[in-house]
């Protein structure tokens, strides 16, 4: 498990900023926080909507899943199983409760909000990234599932709030629960040189029994969940097969892949131009049919093969299916008081106004009516 700073989204594992990573991060934070980016907004009272893997002990009572399963096909192109490696990464968000304390005459006391030198701080929730990496050799996975534990200890983090004189007026106190579970990777032969890989993610975190009649039961249980769970598979030796548009010889095998709570699609990774055999990378297998790729993203957000973040995008607005211009214009419309609330309630929301103001008028127009490709007009019969 990678070490992650618990204070929001500031710390993340170092990795190449290729197409694959951009689309993974966009999906990971889909719906994380929505316009108007404020705690008081009704749509932000029900967060963590996508890809939740809840503790097995409470999932059924909440109508949620305690397991996520990804199944994909890997074509090894005749390479021996003992020389074919697959890197599996499971990424999810871990809910962090952020409290506010004020230094009172009798010591620290919990409050809902605190203003220090004109800067407002609100109690709410944040999230931090977690990742489990499972490097697997194909012959090992064929011999039996490879299991890696998910083991995140509980913890706290205290961020002092000081005024202009240097006096500590209060603090932000962040707490997160321990998480436990397993990631399991298995493999089975399908046909010559083609194998079905299965990745199972299960949450076994101890969780208080929820009251199904309590409207806030799900939100309370989210503190024990793997939120926005995504799985990324990469193979430098083999090629993953599209489940949306498989080659004819593999259509039956592709249709028999069973995915639970997620859907795998092929993604480009422009940071790695050739594989271990010297073949070109990208969205094809050399035949130009787009049915193969080295990297798969299995996401609870429905996508097509080879999704991309629009190059005109000004940055993460936590709504990757929307045209940037629309939420950006909304961000510029609130009152000054509404802006202050957005800034006070969530670290991620603080970046949004600056991001939207940066492009200027021409930048806001760029995503509107963008043309991705030109094709010749065919003459009608």
Can I get a quick summary?
By secondary structure, this protein is of the alpha+beta class.
Report on the architecture of this protein.
A hairpin with a 2-residue loop joins strand 2 (85-104) and strand 3. The chain starts with 18 loop residues before the first helix and ends in a 16-residue tail after the last helix. The longest helix has 11 residues, at 347-357. Helix 7 packs across helix 8. The protein is built from nine helices and 16 strands. Mean pLDDT is 82; it is low at 1-17 and 271-288. With 381 residues, the protein is an alpha+beta fold. It has helices at 19-28, 56-62, 138-143, 217-221, 251-255, 325-331, 336-345, 347-357, 360-365, and strands at residues 67-75, 85-104, 107-111, 113-116, 119-122, 124-137, 146-152, 155-162, 168-176, 179-191, 194-203, 227-234, 239-241, 263-267, 292-293, 295-299. The strands form three sheets. Strands 2, 3, 6, 8, 9, 12, 14 and 16 form an eight-stranded antiparallel beta sheet that branches. A six-stranded antiparallel beta sheet has the order 7-10-11-1-13-15. A two-stranded antiparallel sheet has the order 4-5.
């Amino acid at each position: 498990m990678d070490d992650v700073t618990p204070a929001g989204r500031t710390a993340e594992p170092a990795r190449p900023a290729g197409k694959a990573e951009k689309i993974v991060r966009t999906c990971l934070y889909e719906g994380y926080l929505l316009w108007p980016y404020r705690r008081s907004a009704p749509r932000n009272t029900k967060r963590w909507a996508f890809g939740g893997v809840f503790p097995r002990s409470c999932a059924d009572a909440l109508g949620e899943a305690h397991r996520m399963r990804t199944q994909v096909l890997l074509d090894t192109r005749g390479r021996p199983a003992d020389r074919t490696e697959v890197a599996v990464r499971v990424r999810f968000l871990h809910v962090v409760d952020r409290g506010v304390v004020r230094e009172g005459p009798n010591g620290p006391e919990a409050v809902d909000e605190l203003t220090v030198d004109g800067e407002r701080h609100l109690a709410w929730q944040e999230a931090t990234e977690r990742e489990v990496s499972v490097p697997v050799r194909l012959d090992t996975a064929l011999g039996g599932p490879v299991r890696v534990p998910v083991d995140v200890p509980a913890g706290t983090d205290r961020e002092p709030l000081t005024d202009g004189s240097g006096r500590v007026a209060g603090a932000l106190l962040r707490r997160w629960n321990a998480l436990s579970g397993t990631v399991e990777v298995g493999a089975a032969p399908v046909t010559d040189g083609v194998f079905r890989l299965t990745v199972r993610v299960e949450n076994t975190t101890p969780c208080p029994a929820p009251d199904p009649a309590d409207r806030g039961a799900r939100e309370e249980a989210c503190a024990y969940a793997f939120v926005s769970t995504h799985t990324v598979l990469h193979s430098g030796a083999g090629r993953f097969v599209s489940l949306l548009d498989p080659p004819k010889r593999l259509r039956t095998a592709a249709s028999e892949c069973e995915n639970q709570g997620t859907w795998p699609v092929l993604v480009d990774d422009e940071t790695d131009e050739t594989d271990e055999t010297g073949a070109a990378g990208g969205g094809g297998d050399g035949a130009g049919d787009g049915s193969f790729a080295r990297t798969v993203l299995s996401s609870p957000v429905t996508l097509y093969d080879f999704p991309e973040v629009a190059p005109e995008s000004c940055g993460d607005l936590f709504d990757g299916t929307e045209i940037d211009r629309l939420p950006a214009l909304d961000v510029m419309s609130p009152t000054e008081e509404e802006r202050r609330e957005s800034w006070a309630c969530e670290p991620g929301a603080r970046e949004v106004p600056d991001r939207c103001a940066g492009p200027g008028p021409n930048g806001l127009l760029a995503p509107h009516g963008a043309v991705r490709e030109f094709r010749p007009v065919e003459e009608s019969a």
